[in-house]
């Protein structure tokens, strides 16, 4: 079981869950781009979050994830959930 | 034109103005079982090529009806943006491709139109059924967490309207009509209202339908009117003595309906005018004043167009494919026009009945008939059943002088719609 989510993992999941805008290069330097700039709306993020929760058995803080504007901020929220999960099962 | 009371000339200059001129059709897009794209479908239609075959999209052996009009030559990835793939049902991918064709045909730059000057009005009976089935399966087999967030709108009747509107920035008055088979005309009539009464510049309108999945099929079967004949050449024989119900299909047409003056100003080519329309509703079955109100719809549509029955050069029939429904429609036509007095055709014998897509496709056929001065045939039917006094165009296309076409549609539950289209000018 992975213990954290990388940017590569996230872009793979975004592609799978919400598709990819032809005008955006997800393999480029996207860590600090906003989801809006990447052409992902709130439903796209919601769909991706649902997938991460199912896949990794995590519960992700809904308010914190809604506040995450960029992949960097989003990964911080998800990886906080990973450490909470580890702490809970330790 | 005079300014309305209470408004200054400057106010009204910036306001959309109502008009009395019927709007024109400047673009047509088509996806049909016998041809993808307007001209390919029209070529196949005149050649009498049917798209009705054994169902391939799902395992249909266990169902009593096993034929459908399936669109086989559509690759959604070539037409649907990547972002839209996870959030769209098959029907919406079809509708987006058809809308692209219609707008390209109209050769109009929608991005140059004023905001709110253009809208989208489509018809739908099922919405995104296949998508909905998949998510319902996820819900009951795995739980709510497994249901796509996009289920919130991907199943919805209005989803084609919404996605077309977003893709082309058409933010004017928009909506969806849900009147089963009559929807393909009712939607275009609503588009016409927006242009004529509200001064809207153009509307993308019509219907595209697809529900070829087990859930959709179960709904179609419950309706009780599907033919259970397995021979594609014998299953859907409207007006025939051997009529046994209809075959269902997928697809439809979208039209660009445009303000006549605006179209003229930009030098647009037009297929024809939406000259008249009316809708009626049948009384409840069993009532003493019962019976079809299709004739009322046709007469009111002609009167709306300022025409009489003698002006009609061809009728695109609803062609239900059931003995009683066909007899009722044939009687209506004979009473309205006189026995065998006007050519009647049902090119939907090559596609199956397309729910909300059907009448829009008939409207497209009517407009291309006016363009090419030829009536497409009704296939597989040798001739009308004894006692049906209609001049059914069978076997091959019939060249004719055509100025005015009448399109009829009946929707399950009592909906009747009639629309009159005329050659431009």
Automatic annotation (TrEMBL), chain A:
SUPFAM superfamilies: ACP-like (SSF47336). Keywords: Phosphopantetheine, Phosphoprotein. It holds the Pfam family PP-binding. PROSITE patterns: CARRIER, PHOSPHOPANTETHEINE. The keyword Isomerase does not apply. InterPro entries: ACP-like_sf (IPR036736), PP-bd_ACP (IPR009081), Ppantetheine_attach_site (IPR006162). Transmembrane segments: none annotated. Residues 4-82 form the Carrier domain. This is Acyl carrier protein. It comes from Streptomyces cupreus.
